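Appendix C: a fully annotated inverse folding record. The material below is reproduced so that readers can follow the format used throughout the book. The structure is listed first as tokens, followed by the designed sequence.
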């Protein structure tokens, strides 16, 4: 069907939308790259940019959010490394003959490995959720927001990525 004759632009400023507000105050849904911040919403309708001050605050918030993603990745890496060392120090035998004060719980490698794996899985899920949310922020297709995400990744890596490769293994953000 040819939709070329249809007007997909904004309605007259005086018309009311379904939500009771004016149509010119609705979130814009740009699907092409833009620098325009008029009626920009970041992921949620409630995160609506309506002024220069809210734009600046929002861009700073996006930088911090992207930095916190890098912090979560760093925490996950540290947890995994510490658990690997701790598990390696536990006895291999699933039924140790005696427990020492160091092994007061009587835990062995298999048990500890399973517990650590559940926590690592939760951290992995949190990282993926966070990465996809940052991807949605980036997909506002707004140049200012895209730069804010990239700056957050840059500063986050500077602060939290000292021991990691700059090569990413997760492409979502």
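Designed amino acids, in order:
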């Amino acid at each position: 069907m040819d939709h070329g004759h249809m007007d997909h632009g904004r309605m007259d400023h005086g018309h009311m939308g379904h939500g009771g507000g004016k149509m010119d105050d609705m979130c814009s849904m740009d699907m092409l790259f833009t620098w325009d911040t008029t009626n920009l919403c970041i992921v949620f309708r409630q995160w609506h940019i309506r002024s220069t001050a809210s734009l600046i605050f929002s861009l700073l918030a996006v930088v911090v959010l992207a930095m916190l993603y890098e912090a979560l990745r760093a925490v996950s890496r540290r947890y995994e490394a510490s658990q690997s060392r701790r598990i390696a120090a536990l006895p291999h035998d699933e039924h140790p003959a005696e427990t020492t004060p160091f092994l007061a719980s009587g835990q062995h490698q298999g048990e500890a490995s399973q517990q650590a794996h559940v926590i690592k899985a939760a951290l992995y899920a949190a990282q993926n959720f966070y990465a996809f949310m940052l991807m949605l922020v980036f997909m506002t297709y707004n140049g200012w927001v895209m730069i804010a995400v990239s700056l957050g990744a840059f500063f986050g890596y500077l602060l939290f990525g000292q021991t990691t490769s700059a090569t990413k293994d997760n492409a979502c953000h």
